[in-house]
Amino acid sequence: MSxxxxxxxxSMDESVAVPEVPSSSLPELTLGTGAPGESAPVDPxxxxxxxxxxxRFGVAMGTGRRKTAVARVRIKEGSGAFLINGRQMEEFLRxxxxxxxxxxxxxxxxxxxxVDISVRVDGGGTTGQTGAIILGIARALQGMNETxxxxxxxxxxxxxxxxxxxxxxxxxxxxxxxxxxxxx
Length: 184
What we know:
By secondary structure, this protein is α+β, with helices and mostly antiparallel strands. The protein contains six helices and six strands. Helix 3 packs parallel to helix 5.
């Protein structure tokens, strides 16, 4: 290819005029059904399921689960103490990301540093335990004040992550991994 042919291509590109279309005349892109900007109809009689409970001493309780981890959370008004299995949060959760995600429900409702939290967690690994603690705190906060339900739900903190480890199958090495095939 010579240089002349690339110049011819450039001149052909310039000769093809692309008309300018104002953005207001372009159709708006929508996903799914319904008109753009249309939200789902809101039922005025909708009552959310409140999974948190308040005991007779005024302590909010919530249970969170993730993978095989289970966290039982107790929240009461206080100075901001955060104990997990009898240890400080910074001592129990070594990763900064886990510490920030555990305090996310408190930041959403504006109670960070205003409540004492006690957590008993067992099973699973660190990531599963962190997810269980987040759900447990969110459910306990929901039990404290039902008006916080929508802000916690919109932040995605009241949804249980139901992904579990796939079980091992008969004749396989793991859930899907087969034994190595030997041709000879």
